[in-house]
Amino acid sequence: MFLIYISASIYSTGDSEEFNSGNYIRNLNLTVTASDIYTSKTINVEISVQNPITEFIIQTNPTNLLIINYQNQSPKSIGFSIFLDSNVTEPFYLVDYGDGSLINFAEKIFNFSANFTYAYLTSGYYKVNITVFNKVSSISKYLIVRLVEDFVDFECFPTWRLFPFDFADDFNLTKIGNAYLAKKEYDIRIKCYWLNKDSPIENYTLQYGSYFYVSEKWDQSNIVKTDEYAELIITLSSDILKNENVNEIFIAVSNELFQKVYKAIITPVSSIKDIIPITDLSVSKRGDIRNFNYTFDSLGEPSCALVVEDSNNFNNLLFTIGTNEETCTSYYPYIPFKEKYQTQNKTLSFSAQMTRIGLINYEIYFKNEYSTLTVITSVTASTEDCNRPRVDIENRSSLFYQPRIIQRSKRFSIIGITKVNCKKSFKNLRKWSLFSIRESNGRIIREISITSNPTSSFTELVIPSNSLSYGLYKFVYKVQMFDTNSDLAAFQIDVDHYVKIVPSGIVVQLFPGGMTNIRRGLDQNIILDPTIYSYDLDSYFSVKNLKFKFYCSIIEDGIIIKSPLISLNKFIDLESIKFNYTRNFSSISCFDSLDSYFFRNNGNLLNITAR
């Protein structure tokens, strides 16, 4: 025992003193007394002097974890051994095996070594983190474990998509002889499958003509796993197809021990893509020459377009335009050829004489050897001094794969915008229509009657909450000018707007009235039953059929000081703690004992017992 006197000023100040703990492992009691002429204060501190961990060695069985062939073997066991210096005091170890399983909580190391075995259920790429610690130090190391297998029943199929979004329909490429025909305006998506879905790939290569690509090592981002198989999607860009002729596509998928290869002959062909009318709402007179303009991505040349005039369901085959007369004659031998395509800056133009009065649809049928496309343009011809109404929708979503997102529980409205330019006063008819749409391709499934909606003929259409099922919808706003003694029925136009109805979510509540906290005495039970107070905002699902999980954290002064973890970013729910752990309980839970709480109703009711 020793005494140290330190004088202090009248101001608050911090004092420190360094002590040498010596070379012996022991527990020390340090007593600190502060005093003046009036009072004194004593603090006792227990100091544990231990040897720290400076290094440890890991050995595994098998020794090389980077290449392990566990073909058709399950489980896949790995042996681990830890070795420490002989002077380390009371060491423990903690292991995260990297497969998302619950952490093996701290185990004590006896005689400065530990041996343990872990069985992986599937092949894969795992990062094992081993931490060795005692009260005064901690060291972590990690190992990479790759358990590989051959790719069982490996097979690939080349596909393409008409629309550029994730959930669009995939279409198989047409095969003629030993070659696939690929529309070079669209990406090729090669889908490769194998059954042992958990076997990781080290990389894959893609070669097509002069193009060569090697993926990043162990990049699994393009792999989709189902219950039965793994799917690797490899994209060959249309930009590459446009610059290549007939070539073999070569794909190799490999890991350290195995490789599978897919080969196919690809013939790039030209297709017709994205021909869109340029809107022109001007009104023509009978006999006028009217210009028609269209933007396009590709005309699929050599190709031809048949121009048809449709008025009151009477079709008049006018003429053809195309790459050349020979091409058009081969497709439409009895229709007069007018001219070659007139294009400039990706815009196609032609003209036609107005021969009728009324609303006339000009239907243009584009065609080549591998694709077809129909484009319709509506034109008004009239003797009246009027223009067609200009129609739009506020915040319009014109693409079915980029719809407006609405929660089912929300009431919403769609506002149509109409501008009329006519020197005469006529009635305007406004009408809304509703269609159910297939999300993968934008096709109409069926029309839904909204005649009972009192706003269906107003500029603003109001949709009540919970009135539409989940899914994609197309709203069409149509405006028509009319009079009994006029041909103004031709003055009509419509515009569409896509809306997707999605779930609103579940409101989870443990207490009545939306309360978020309660107070209970130590001698009172606490019963938490979310199935009583929780509810589905859409009134679509029964809350009693849902599965709830309970988590617990200790909070002091508004700060979470302890949360049970599976790994660095995964919490442990109370039901898992109760039924999966029998040791070290106090280190991973808010409760002192497994008997402090129990569950009923398949784990949906938590009863915390009184102390």
From TrEMBL:
Provide the PKD/REJ-like domain boundaries.
421-552
**InterPro entries associated with the record:** PKD/REJ-like, PKD_dom_sf
Instruction: Give the matching Pfam families.
Output: REJ
Q: What is this protein called?
A: PKD/REJ-like domain-containing protein
